């Protein structure tokens, strides 16, 4: 049993003003975070001083301008392109990992391979790519389409996209560039590998015009929980970010993914599973609940009702009394399981519309922990030690205060228990996460 | 006559190890520049301390791996994605402009608009986009194509691409984001503008998910000299980088572009024309020529012959004696005017193959100035005062030394003559260049 040396991986999931939908209205929140680079410098340095493995950025290739009156009351319309932002943050940090989301739906693999290879070079081996497929028609409409391709086709494209990117990342062997001024030989032509990919979705000749990554290649992260998503992750992901509501869900997902790995010749340690955690920390339980209630009370009913309408599958609830019960709902084409669970919850607990939207306003499906440093540490420790997680992605309700509180209150408790590092040991994101540096494909074949 | 207050714009055109094809073999050159972020930090700070308007990065979406033995002897295969690199440099500089090339051929306008808007936010208004079309099949083959679309179609796409990007940059008015915590209003919905573009090449709904640029919008730069290129530039460019060999060429181009502007309702000052200058500086003329000769002698014949073969239109010269005459050439489909000019030059001056490739090894068609600070300043002053240029893009033969020598020797002479600033006055790239901050399209219409 090596439990004493096994430690958490921790990501700081940064999102403009905060993960709670009303986080921007918190008195201490940086309300202009989405347009404020200095704010991100502060957060990145804060997370690095606390020795987080990485900062993580989500992405969307658009603005959901369909519910305009609701949108105008949330801080979700102005944000930075994540790779561009992380490149700037790379220049003002030294050790922390830098993980950006880029969709396979609206980009070209050559460009994505280049940008992450560049980020990895600039940061000295700290880049990670969160590979996603896009799921909103609003985004598709910014890219010459009316609607999205269906789920299966999106995942098929994503899988081929991944393989092209990894192929391009192996264009050069580690010691290709000799740069001998005397002989005039700049690179060893035998160590250049031209991909010549011809697949269903992509034809990409290569080679990539960026040197091989300091960490072999950037870390590949994924977040899909569907069957297609799990299959792709089991073959290709090195880190999985995932949303769970309960320990049982987390444990089942963890066992499922780790169980799929041998089929791809992979070991359980080759993939780190990191559920999202939405923490509200107090010095007492009452203080934590009071803080949470203060956030919840700031959810504008227009925003809450629109959010709920979207989550339950596009049914418009704006005509109903916000303090009345959920009406009977017609069958829809939306994500049925989530709708079903929510409506069942509302019936069982006799929730009003307001109470129901408050349930989803913060953690967006992730585990919400409202408590003291000890009770939050207990919960993380259980998930970690009992087969639910290899680490966590911390989703602060508002920034910078929500992250500061987690660092000041919860991290010392985790460290006392030996669950989280007190300093960095390695220099690259792979080293932080305990992932091996991959050998060049040619070296593997030889 | 306001000549005394009119001053140069100066760009520092950074290119890995240097603009001379053998620059990387210079004893002081940073041979690993293409994979060395710290090198770029040093160059950016050097150019900023010298008060250059901007640093400028070219780009290629591929590696020309067709002449492998030649390619392996040049420093042209490993470089950084330019926007990603400039974002990192934005974080460690304060005032200098940041101009990156991104092709309209292999990207999507929504992504390009986002990345430059983000760079502009991060840098506090210092971003510029050099809009180009790609001209190599090697690049096309990294993006699902065998060959490029023809010249006219590429420019048609570029023009529409430009209009979409500018439309997206006006998604938000300057004061859209009110972020009032009390009322819960994050933005003023009346100040959000959805583009809904439907054109021949693109359908892009918008809005952009980045706030309006600190400088209204990033500066649009172009480099095309063809008829299609000039027409697009006259309508859309704010800066034009261009290659000329002689003052007469420069003057004719300058007059042509400035003369086209009124047709688009634009003033001569709305477009800054900046030819590329390849300087080799010595304390005496003899020293400058000696330095240049030392660079020329380092051109590997394999590289020189391959370069010449490409430039004269794809005719393979590798079987001929490098110290013998240029052979009779068949008609080709390559760029005939350049081939014709070069062959005529070789015949007139009775040049050998080696002598001819040395003529094109450095400045790649740009003006080559080999001399003292006084003679170089004389030449720049003439171009500037006699209608050939509004400024120059300085293409150092090798880095960092070639740029350092220009700064140490030529800049003081230009300053003595009142031709170049001694300090920054403004904070944005537009302010450096003397370009007005564009009002929002809606404000213009109102």
TrEMBL record, chains A, B:
Keywords: Flavoprotein, FMN, Monooxygenase, Oxidoreductase
Organism this protein belongs to: Caballeronia hypogeia
Domain Luciferase-like: 27-390
Coiled-coil portions: none
Record-level Gene Ontology MF annotations: monooxygenase activity; oxidoreductase activity, acting on paired donors, with incorporation or reduction of molecular oxygen
Binding site for FMN: 59, 101, 151, 155, 226
Gene3D superfamilies: Luciferase-like domain
Family, per entry: Belongs to the NtaA/SnaA/DszA monooxygenase family.
Family matches, as CDD domains: Nitrilotriacetate_monoxgenase
Top-rank taxon, per record: Bacteria
Plastid keyword on record: no
InterPro entries: Diverse_substr_monoxygenases (IPR051260), Luciferase-like_dom (IPR011251), Luciferase-like_sf (IPR036661), NTA_MOA (IPR016215)
Protein name: Nitrilotriacetate monooxygenase component A
Pfam families noted in UniProt: Bac_luciferase
